[in-house]
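chain below, 350 aa
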Amino acid sequence: MSVKPTVLRLGNVNYAQEAWKKLAQIANVVSIEPSMNREAFLKALKDPKSDISKAQIITRTFQSVQQTGRFDKELCDSLPSSVVAVCHLGAGYDQIDTEFFKIRKIQVTNVPELVNDATADTHVFLLLGALRNFSYGSRVLINGGWPKAGPAGGAPVGNDPEGKVVGVLGLGGIGRTVAKRLQPFGFQRFIYHNRSRLSAELENGCEYVSFDELLKQSDVISINIPLNPKTKHMLDEEAFGKMKDGVVIVNTARGAVIDEAALIKALKSGKVRSAGLDVFEHEPQVPQELLDMPQVTGLPHMGTNTFETIKHMEEFIVENVENIIKTGKGLTIVPELKGESWIDSAKMLC
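prediction:
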């Protein structure tokens, strides 16, 4: 009888207990104590007496960074030679420095597509809220300032979608879903910028433009790009300077694609009229100055916070693990590692 491969599970399971129970039939699933810190985790990875040091596949959640820290070079170098894959629960995987895992020939997978609908719904909520100044009115209402503050709680008059150009920065799965959700609202045009132009079928009526043209033409800028060294602070002070006066900014991607200090400056000057933000540069720490701005509609990273989406994501990460065990290869290899010959020739673990 063959020995079951060891799967190290980092982070909580909320709704996919049955999927993990089924996986336990073909894998030895181990976990860490919630109180464990990075130092103890790195030590356990190198301790031959620890089940952690026998891991072959590691699954991780966004929140598990609190126990392990980033999956950076130090952590990657500390992993036992048995590890063949790291499976991340989420579409964004910027907590993992994939270049070091590529060197060690460790697969990295994520959970794309399943987050598209929930994130796009959140994006539309924030976009319409920012366009209509709903946060301003909501704050006045909650603080007991209406009707004393006047009609609409004294909120500045907002705008309809009519005649507005939406610039979609990143027309990937989430960006395309956002555009599809927004099209019935009556916006005049949809333009987008990617590293390269998409096929007409994937564009679905959106017009490809350069980055500078997107900044110049957009009344609303919808941000849907991943965070990596090339996209960090992509929207900086120089970029804000190229935008229309009174532009609306919406971000449900990653906070650090925007230089937050530059955004605050642009909001104070009126260059950016309003913003809808589900993510922040150094979350969960958010500058009080930004939180206090009534023209900012903010959420504490709630983009995928639905029962259905979380359950589907948790179940899919188990599918990724199961596929690695049975075929040697993850279902959703991150783009930086796709096409690597060592992944294509990977062997099953059972």
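The mean pLDDT is 96. The longest helix spans residues 307-327.
thats it, cya
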